[in-house]
């Protein structure tokens, strides 16, 4: 994925700091881009926390700050989450914009074993992603062998795109269970589920497995941050 291909374990760990920030600080941070400075006054009393937690680097003059290098992926993900409000506008047009922004053409084409070519028709992909079958096909997987066969069929296409299978999305049975559990939990909720709430609902899971499950759901268009 273009914007969400990141270390989701690091992302979830950084949420502890993110949840402590004021809304105004979050807004300033969400607009901050790499190598661009911002007046530190925008962070108010959160400045020390952001600097100590390696979210920002304060310039030597003490007046401006920029993103800390280690936090670039986290900040990129936050900015991306602000771009498409699928939950407020759950329609085909919004989903099409989201897919176009987050997946390369080859990745779109590789999402399904269907012989139709998504490269030339993103509308077909959008229609499939919005269907019940799209979810059920994944939720009905019973074990890691079925999951790996399922994933393998979805990572090949006529243009030669194929994921490096040393870095599978579904790397273990624990990841499969975590991803399926997240999807079922989201399906059962009538409201949007924040990452903070997700951590609370799945505190029984190893955080690394939860992070891998989040990555799986995002990569395969089952969940939309």
Plain-language structure description:
This protein is mainly alpha-helical. 50% of the residues lie in helices and 4% in strands. It contains 12 helices and 3 strands; from the N terminus they run ααβαββααααααααα. A 3-stranded antiparallel sheet has the order 1-3-2. A hairpin with a 5-residue loop joins β2 and β3. α5 packs across α7. The radius of gyration is 19 Å and the shape is globular. The two termini are 13 Å apart. The model has no long low-confidence stretch (mean pLDDT 86).
Strand arrangement across the biggest beta sheet: 1-3-2
Helix content: 40-55%
Helix and strand run: HHEHEEHHHHHHHHH
User: Quick one: overall form?
Assistant: globular
Rg computed from alpha carbons, rounded to a whole number of angstroms: 19 Å
Mean pLDDT: 86
Low-pLDDT ranges: none
**Percent in strands:** under 5%
Largest sheet: 3 strands, antiparallel
Going by helix content, strand content and strand pairing, the class is mainly alpha
Number of helices: 12
Distance between the termini: 13 Å
Number of strands: 3
Give a summary of the structure in a few sentences.
The chain is built from twelve helices and three strands, in the order ααβαββααααααααα. With about 220 residues, it is mainly alpha-helical. It has a three-stranded antiparallel beta sheet with strand order 1-3-2.
């Amino acid at each position: 994925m273009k914007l969400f291909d990141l270390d989701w374990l690091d992302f979830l760990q950084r949420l502890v700091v993110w949840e402590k920030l004021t809304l105004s600080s979050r807004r300033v941070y969400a607009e901050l881009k790499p190598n661009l400075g911002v007046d530190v006054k925008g962070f108010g009393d959160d400045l020390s926390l952001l600097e100590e937690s390696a979210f920002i680097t304060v310039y030597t003059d003490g007046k401006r700050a920029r993103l800390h290098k280690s936090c670039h992926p986290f900040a990129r993900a936050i900015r991306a989450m602000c771009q498409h409000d699928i939950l407020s506008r759950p329609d085909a047009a919004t989903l099409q914009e989201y897919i176009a922004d987050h997946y390369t053409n080859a990745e779109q084409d590789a999402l399904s074993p269907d012989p139709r070519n998504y490269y030339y028709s993103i509308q077909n992909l959008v229609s499939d992603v919005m269907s019940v079958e799209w979810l059920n096909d994944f939720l009905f997987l019973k074990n890691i062998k079925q999951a790996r066969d399922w994933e393998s069929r979805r990572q090949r296409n006529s243009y030669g795109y194929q994921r490096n299978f040393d870095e599978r999305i579904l790397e273990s049975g624990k990841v499969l269970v975590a991803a399926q559990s997240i999807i079922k939990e989201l399906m059962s909720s009538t409201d949007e589920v924040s990452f903070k709430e997700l951590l609370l609902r799945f505190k029984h899971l190893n955080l690394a497995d939860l992070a891998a499950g989040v990555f799986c759901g995002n990569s395969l268009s089952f969940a939309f941050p």
